[in-house]
Each structure stands twice: as structure tokens, then as C-alpha cells.
Predict the structure.
Amino acid sequence: MAGSGTAHLRGEDALLRVEELVVEYPTKGGVVQAVSDVSFDVLPGETLGIVGESGCGKSTTGRAVLRLDRMTAGRITFAGERIEKAPEKRMRELRRSMQMIFQDPQASLNPRRSVKDLVVEGLAVAGVPKEERAKVSREVLTQVGLGSERFANLLPRQLSGGQAQRVAIGRALALRPRLLICDEPVSALDVSVQAQILNLIEELKASHDLTVVFIAHDLGVVRAVSDNVLVMYLGKVCEFGDSERVYSSPAHPYTRALLDSVPLTDPDRGFNGPALEGDLPSPLNPPTGCRFRTRCPLAEERCATEPPQIREVRPGQYVACHFPLVSGPSPDAAPATSAEPAPAAAESQPAAGTA
Amino acid sequence: MNAQPEPVLAVRNLRAYIGTPRGAVRAVDDVSLHVGRAQALGVVGESGSGKSVMARAIMGLLPPRSACSGEVLFKGRDLLTLPRKERQEIWGKQIAMVFQDPGRSLNPVVRIERQLTEGMRKHLGIGKSEAHGRAVDLLREVGVPDPERRLRNYPHELSGGMRQRVMIATALACEPDLLIADEPTTALDVTVQRQILDLLRRVQRDRGMAMMLISHDLAVVAGRTDRVAVMYAGRLAETGTTRAIFAAPRHRYTHALLDATPSLDHQRHAPMRVIPGSLPDPTSPPPGCRFAPRCAHTTDACVDPGPRMTSADGVAAGMDHLIACVNPVAAPAAADGAAPASVGAGASPNTGLAKGGDLVGR
């Protein structure tokens, strides 16, 4: 899966285009390439879901787009402007149009500021006068469902997790961004509150003409909000495509394994398919060729020597794999038989460790 | 495997209140449930439901300034009143626990071997070399490759999934009758979570051990347990066979929670079903049903007198599926027979209570 290439990019009208992004971190054990030659784009009004497990580089990618993390190489184009080398002053302006919300809303809010001040922090930085800020504050709080007077003077610690995430979303919206990057926005929330926040993001996306990058490890959550999904593993792209297509007939063995690992609310079928064996390899020393090959049930010799390039396997579905699960152009093709889920007996297989 | 002559664990009218500066948090408020021999019980609830505090009360791990009442009967002996020495013979040996964060529950400066064999040597009184042999076998059982080498490792040298396997091996070391797994996979990635869930179910079945699997996620519990208990704000909402509850949840909260759980076949951009509002204040919960303020089907009777734990299918159908809901979801039209009537036809609620042992007093 070690996917490189730009075959899946969709051209000039993308609001955000990321090409051949590389982000490296120095560590005691050597240099870790957290993001390794990743490309994607997001069209205006689209929601792109980025999924993958820890260490896949999805959050680093999101942060690199805003230049919160230093990128090692690559090109980032936002609304036609190349921003990877933009001076910090220009980036500060640009970040008003590119807002981000994080997993832990409590940690991202100043604990000493009241809710009504927090949501317009960005405007204060931009020098917007006080009366104007108060007006925007009221508007935005109403939009995120905290319109009631009693919230205005609360401090972050007096809020529940869901309410704090609403404040964080409001703070992003106050700057009237075009792009909203959500990094695991609901992972820390209870299921009953998760749905509220997901619905809010969907509503605001429509009312504010937002383009959204939605980063999450939960495939069910990503499914609900995404038009297209990008699946990542160990710093590389595995698969990109229309979310319904990718979920119903994944082409990459890793995508398939992720889907098969999601527990089902079905007492007779714990999972859709067999477990993936082994552990994530060390990012300090990633496998040669395809980075997924050490855990891939379909890996062959070629996978160890030749990193796969991203290519279109079906219209609108791109995969970086030498042996994708779907082949041929027919959109009606059934998923490859070798990976057909075994409906029963989903558990009870000895979860053997790494070979 | 399914009938329960005498449960391994029976919790009766358990209350655990935790003192805070703002008043006592009623973390567990009158909860009764049981785990049968060789049975897996799933305990599901969101944060604040009391599921973890209940597990800690069973294990004697409540924080200072907390009060506990009711009964925790382990093989018929009440852990809350047993002399300290006898309790310590049970905790760790006959009841073992696996926690959410394997990184924090292992000692970072002690090699795996010592952490794994400490309990065995203390509780089983075996020597060093025998303990070593057992440790190797245990690691093999839980799927740790190259166990001899792993025993010499420190925790930080293992991945999160491997550490959780080591924790499970440690818990299994003294051959417990009951394993309590509190959110064992919440800190893990989805493919590793999958491996650990498969592992837990396999060792539970292979060893004929009872297991309490605690999770905030209904789906985690669904495929891996025989029975389920759903908790909300310190109270038990619904309990029954996993199959019956997932086929037809009757409590309004269970139903709403299941609806709000994101699934892989959710239609794109379709609004998610939500549960409005948020949890009640745990220091002064609302009267009657604690879910009533968020429930779309609340009636006056939900607040006063409030729900009692009753059979979901009528007393004649047995006391296996219980709900504390005044205005429950209608039973499925076709009697699904998911809960075979094992209680005699003429059983009154009180005899059912004695047999099921699953009732909440009020």
C-alpha cells in the first residue's frame, strides 16, 4: 500500500490541494517520516474524510496543511495560492479562512476566558472592535446551539465535553472560514453527544458554505459525513474514492481489514470478516515496498520490492496496491472473492500475533 | 454455559457514593445484576453511567471518601463484609481485572516477567522456575510472539496491543473465576481492538471463566457476550440476553443509544439520530427515571412514581429480560421467543426476584 502518486487529484478547481507532502520528525532513534509522499485534494463544498489508525499520519497531515507542523517537502495550494512557502504573516491571514478543531475541546480553550469571549478570540486578534465582537459572539453561539444567556459567562471547565466542542466550533466559525479541518472532533465524546456534534457540523457546513476535511479513526463516523474518503496507513495513502463506493467495495486490503474490524451491533456476527494479524511496524524502520505488506493477507514478493503507485481501479476509486480487491473498469463488479467476508465464525479465530 | 444455577457474582442493591466538594456523587445507585458461571456479561453505559465505579466497588478499589452499601456476592460470600484477609485472597486471584490503559497499569521500570509472575508466586506459592514456565505458556495463550524474549522486555518496548495482551496474561495468571475487563480496548486502534476482543472471548470460552466486559460501545459488547446490562446515570436501565436486547431493545435509553451509534451502513449526509441534552447532575439526579429529561416518551408516571425493574415480556415469560421503563418500546409483534420461559408460569414478581436476582429494589 505504500502509496505514492497523484493520479487521484482532480484538477484546478480544488479549494485545497496537497501534493507529495512529506513531514519528518527527528527522534532519538532517527528520523520518522510521519507523512510520506501524500497527495489529495478537496473540492469546494465537499467533505473529505481521512481515516486510518494511529501512526498513519492523518493528524499530522491536517496540521501540516495549516503549517502548524513544519513540512519537509511538498506543495500545498489553497484557493489557487501556493502556501507552503508563504511567510508567517500571510499564513496568519490565511488561517482565518482555514480553521481547525481538535479532539479535546477543553484543552484547546483558554480555561480563564468566558464562553462569550472565547468564541471571538480570533476576531480580537484580528483587531475587530468590541461592539462588533459582542454581536458576532451572540450570533455564533446561537448557531452552535449555545444561544441561551446562561452559557455566555461560563468558563470551559463548567461545560460538558459536547458543549466545549460547540464553543470550539463556534470559535472557528466566527472567522468565517472557507475550510474547516476537524481532527477527531467527536472521539472524546459519548455516543449520544457524538451524534449531536456530527449533525451540527453538517448543518453548519450547509449554512456557511464550508469545505470540510474530517479526520477520524472511526469509520462509522466518517461514513456519515464524507463525500470522499482517503485511507492512510503508516504515512502513506492506501485508497481514495467516493465514500459509498469505498465502503461497499473497498479495493485496498487494508481498507477491507479496517472495515472488517469495526464491531457490529449484531449479536450473531461480531465482525464482517477476519481479523488483521500482527502489529503496526516501527515507523522508524518502515517495511520496504508496500508498507502494509507485513500484515497483508495478499502480499507477494513484488510488494516487498516495488512501492505501489496510486492508480484508478474503477471510475472515481483509486488505490495504491499491486493486487487490489477490485479489478477491471466495471462498476458493478463484485468485490474480489478472496476477500469475501465470512459472515459467521467471525470470532473464535485464534488471534495469532505477528508471524 | 447458559443456565445459571448459582451465579459466580451477584451484585445486589449496590450503592457507591463518592464524596466530592460539591456533594456526594451517586455513581452507582441501587444496581443489581449477576454473572453466571462461564458466562460473559456486557456492561454498557456512557460516561457517568456508573459502570466503572461498579467494577471498582467489586474489586475494592473505590477512592477514599466513598461509601458503599448493598451486597457483592462472589460465590455466595459478600465481599463488602468479608474480613480483609479473606477478601485479599479473592481479589487478584479469583477475580482479576484488566483496565483501559495498559500503558499505565504496568510498572514501567519492572520487566514483564516479574510483573507477570508476581501474582502467581504470591497467590499460588510456586517457585521461580515454575512461574517462568507458566508465564511463557500464558504469553503464548494470549498470542504474544517470542514469549521468552518478551519476558525480558520492559513495558515501553511493547506496542499498545502487546501490552494489553500482557495485562490479560497477568490477569489470567492465577486462573480467576471472574475476569473484569473495564474498557479493555478503548485506547487501542480498531484492528488491534479487534484482536483483543477476539482474544478475550476465546480465553473466556476456553477456560470456562466468567467475564464482565465493560464498554461505552454497544457494538463492542454485542458479538462477545451472552448477556448485557445497560446502565444510565448510576442506575440499571435494561438487562437480558445479548440477543434479545439487540434484537428488540425495550428501554427507551437502550433504543436511543443504539439508534445514535454510528454504523457502517449509515446513509451519507443523513442526519444522525441524537439523544438531546446531556447527563443529569450526579450529585442531585432528577426524581424518578433519570433518563426522563432527555427522553422523547416521558409521561407523568416516569417522574412519579418512576420506573421499577420489571420483566420486559410479562412475568409469565420469565425474568430474564428486565427493564426499568414506564413507557417502554413496544415488544416486537411476533413473539420472538428469544428468552425461553424458564420461570414457572405462575411466578409472582417476588419469586422471580429471588430467582433472577436481577431486580432493583425501587
Observations:
- DSSP finds 13 helices and twelve strands in chain B.
- Residues 102-173 of chain B form one domain.
